[in-house]
Amino acid sequence: MEPLTTTADTGSIERERTIAADQRPSSPTSSIPSGSFAAWGRTTELDPTPGGTFRIDYNGNDIVRGEYLEVDPPYRVVFTWGWEAAGDETPPGASTVEVTLTPDGDGTRVNIRHSGLKAEAVDGHAEGWDQSLPILTTIADEAEAA
Questions:
Q1: pLDDT tens sequence across 27-48
Q2: CATH value of 5-145 in 3.40.718.10, 3.40.50.2300, 2.30.40.10, 3.30.530.20
Q3: Which H or E run includes 125?
Q4: pTM above the 0.85 mark?
């Protein structure tokens, strides 16, 4: 399924995609986004437990940081999201990402909802999710096939 919604006036983005993989990870570190995001960064710090933090340095300039609010492996993870760059319109803790994995036949439906964004940050984050979700789900599919 293709991208669902981008709503600047409510500061939210929702994306959904069905992947071939039967996602049954044994721990939250192997679920999206915990394990899959780790594959992208130059350095990653992940503590996927409620109250735990994550920090991903993608390239030395783009560094995202957040706190896990809810971890229900393998079906759901909720975390805060923000960029460490001084003056960024979405600083750490400013927005929330919910990732839900739902069995769907022989595959899994991946739903990402990013909320709490300022209107001027929605388009950039929507573009990021549109680029990221196919990569994340490809990583999950490849991990399932291995």
A1: 444 444 455 555 567 788 889 8
A2: 3.30.530.20
A3: helix 119-145
A4: no
